[in-house]
Amino acid sequence: MEPDPPAPQDATDPVAGLARxxxxxxxxxxxxxxxxxxxLASALIVEAAExxxxxxxxxxxxxxxxxxxxRAAVSEEIADVLLYLVRLADVLGIDPLxxxxxxxxxxxxxxxxxxxxxxxRKYDAL
Amino acid sequence: MEPDPPAPQDATDPVAGLARxxxxxxxxxxxxxxxxxxxLASALIVEAAExxxxxxxxxxxxxxxxxxxxRAAVSEEIADVLLYLVRLADVLGIDPLxxxxxxxxxxxxxxxxxxxxxxxRKYDAL
Amino acid sequence: MEPDPPAPQDATDPVAGLARxxxxxxxxxxxxxxxxxxxLASALIVEAAExxxxxxxxxxxxxxxxxxxxRAAVSEEIADVLLYLVRLADVLGIDPLxxxxxxxxxxxxxxxxxxxxxxxRKYDAL
Amino acid sequence: MEPDPPAPQDATDPVAGLARxxxxxxxxxxxxxxxxxxxLASALIVEAAExxxxxxxxxxxxxxxxxxxxRAAVSEEIADVLLYLVRLADVLGIDPLxxxxxxxxxxxxxxxxxxxxxxxRKYDAL
Lengths: 126, 126, 126, 126
Fold this sequence. Notes:
By secondary structure, the first copy, chain A, is mainly α. Chain A has helices spanning 14-28, 37-53, 60-63, 68-92, 96-110, 113-116, 121-125. The longest helix of chain A is centred in the middle third of the chain and has 25 residues, at 68-92.
């Protein structure tokens, strides 16, 4: 089960390159059987929780000035979330960067600068 | 509070380009005050849950063949997770793509092909 | 598929009473087919995220003085988490109150008063 | 900072008894300072993720027949979720059992037996 060679766009889209590397990683280990969208979405939230765990007892201010060891651990959790997100999007045939750009454009309409200034989304949305 | 002009690497790193766009988005709305790492990690897991919610009552097989409307909704949730992830990483000064590549290299050592074939990570890790 | 009549201990264990009501609720709607532990654990975390969402942009101090409408919404999310937790435990044949008491006793040994005073778990655990 | 003596209802409400034990546990360690609703809601979802992690790579059928060691680990995670849920509700002055009973009554109206039979909530809600 040899994965396809890297697609031509990989050179300019590093996220697509990561998706191909993850596909190869799963194929080599015969792990595609575990990679249903349902399972990958579960694995993603579990990693998001491991990320949040680093901050749960910190004040907001403390969360902005991590010690090097904790920053390195946080960096690994960010990596884990991104890996599962890219893998999930790839299994579903979704381009996550294009989806993010579309959503940001949508949010710009949803939260006009003048009406949103200084209010958190939550309050704005209520 | 004008954001910095795009850094030179943006042309070849679309994730860094997204980080700059998100920084500008927050600055224009005076939302940086809400964007502590602690808060962003919470917002990220909330979006990860909205993503998982689409799959929670589906079988694994059903989760792989979504109807167009549900696929579009899932795509938006993937976008939301990526937006918060990129923003969180940026606030912490972490390059998420580099972190993901490092972690994938680490995982390749941790789960050697021969010993990992056909076993889920979970069982392998036990 | 008529559920069993309430067990005698229900009178003194309100959590067991809730488990019986939930079993009946699922049976009447033929929803037991969806209530695998895997699915219920997903539904539980989705509700936990809806709970967290109320607090994500608040300061810690603000989170302790909710307006009546927000407090009522939070109360409903707490209810949803408890309902799925009781249902999941019941499907697995686990008594959640007994498990909680056992864990609290274990935590008392793990975090001795003198050594734990004033430190968050996280730091203590490191 | 001596906690109040157990309230009279503890004898018949084991959840209130647990809330009092948790309050004492926190007071003895001077941990109330960390127990803002915001922080407790984060800790709760982190425990919900540790619970989900046990099931993420299992099939639904496998999730219903755990080995004794895994069942014991799951039981501890259920305990952790319940402990944080009871503590969070107590800090907010919410009775979680009463809230759960109210919500179940509301759900019975929202999902009438005849219209809901055999459909998952998700589809029903759409």
